[in-house]
Structure prediction request, 422 residues.
Amino acid sequence: MTRFWHPVADMHAVQSSGELILDRGEGCQLWDAAGNRYIDSTGGLWYANVGYGRAEIADAAAAQMRKLHAYSHYGDVSSRPTTDLAERISSIAPMKDAAVFLTSGGGESIETVVKLVRRYWSLLGHPQRTTIISRERAYHGLAGFGTSIVGTEAFKVGVGPLAGGTARVAWDSANALEATIAELGAEHIAAFFCEPIIGAGGVLLPPDGYLAAVRQICRDHGILFVADEVICGYGRVGDWFACRRLGLDPDAVTFAKGITSGYVPLGGVIVGSRIQEPFWGTAGAGVWRHGYTYSGHATAAAAAHANLDVIEREDLVGRALALETEIPEALAPLLAHELVSEIRGGFGAVAAVQIDPALLADDPGLTDRVTLEARNFGVLTRTLVGGGLQISPPLVITREELDEVASGLAGALDAVAGARAS
Ligand SMILES: Cc1ncc(COP(=O)(O)O)c(C=O)c1O
Prediction:
């Protein structure tokens, strides 16, 4: 019996089913402790952009650990890799003159940006501008504020009172945002949070023109526009950031995952000049009392540099753009399957195979059974909110490996459909 309490798990079920112990990885392939091989169709949890087994990232981290593994970066202290990383991120950011606040992951980045935008308004003399609007189906991690603004109620069950000053709008309607602003009053709203592609909430691509429209609405009302690019950032959408590709000029961008491809935990917030101004430009704002022990961790920064080197050298941003068509092409045959109602994708290396919601209504565990069965066909995937299968492979995946993913999923779908029929 394991003593490891797994994240996002039913530990009663894990006790009886046991753990899948993964042992090693190379490129897009993983092997478990029993020697079984899998193709990773999800890039871990959307993070393994450069794939597994990159010795140069391990070497960069080890070299930094031998030299100076970490030191508190509170106040005026920094280390070379950290200061250089902020400069490097700023140079590829979707807005000009950006500053970079570093954290240990996506959840801490959301905590940071909520506090940041509220503090911004407070410094400007509008302390009542606290409301954070997010979208239904949105996912912003499961820390305190993240759980408060998540767009799927299941994540809030039994948590008790959550942070106040939040509101949700339909995920796909700019008019809904406009209506909510009219109802609450722009003078109470701090920011609108928006994943360019809703990821964990089901891989929901924005309707045509939606992102440009909500960006403009925020501008018109003086509301800060925060793009949560924890999944999209660092190449996955065929550009360094979705906001760059779409020309959205956000006020702040949260990131994590792809910055190190998950080799070590790292996240952060890219902050545009409007939000920086009252903190950096004005004497008297004083210390912003926010930060984490590992904000600016030197080893994490060294690993991030090595990871970005790989992305640049192998043009994985360009590869993601090619995957934008290759992934839907490879998955297209699955659409004919009786359990599948839709294949979503076509913006970067992100897609979902949707199990028919009409079937899920009577059989809610259906997608989970396909996900488990896929392991027997050599594919690791994941069940998304709404019952889709997650497809977000390492950007190094080949067309042959994508075809292996598709045929493995077809095998799993057949096996589950067969078991339902018998
Ligand atoms: C869009 C988005 N924001 C925030 C997070 C939270 O990141 P973390 O799990 O590192 O706390 C995630 C995680 O999947 C995410 O997809």
About this structure: The two ends are 33 Å apart (CA to CA).
